[in-house]
Design brief:
The protein is mainly beta and about 90 residues long. The chain has strands at about 20, 35-40, 45-50, 55-60, 65, 70, 80-85. The chain is globular.
């Protein structure tokens, strides 16, 4: 099978090279800043953006939130099945 990612530099414009589950935490940042979040079950997301700003957004089921995210807070987050799209 050919690999379209072979020899290609990862780019912030995408696509992400991996998707990892997120466990919301009020104290711990994600392992790496996410390019975007994918949310399976809609609700509220309490996040800290890559720019260091605290934000609260409401999303519907199966949403993609295309913003750099360094943390998903437990307090204030009711959405579920959250995954970070990252450059591995």
């Amino acid at each position: 099978m050919s690999n379209p990612f072979a020899g290609r530099e990862p780019a912030l414009s995408g696509p992400a090279t991996d998707i990892v589950p997120v466990t919301p935490s009020d104290a711990t940042d994600l392992g790496q800043v996410a390019l975007a979040l994918y949310v399976e079950t809609g609700g509220t997301l309490s996040i800290v953006t890559e720019a260091g700003q605290s934000r609260s957004v409401t999303v519907v089921d199966f949403s993609i939130l295309p913003v750099g995210v360094r943390r998903v807070n437990q307090t204030g987050t009711s959405a579920g099945g959250i995954h970070a799209m990252v450059l591995a």
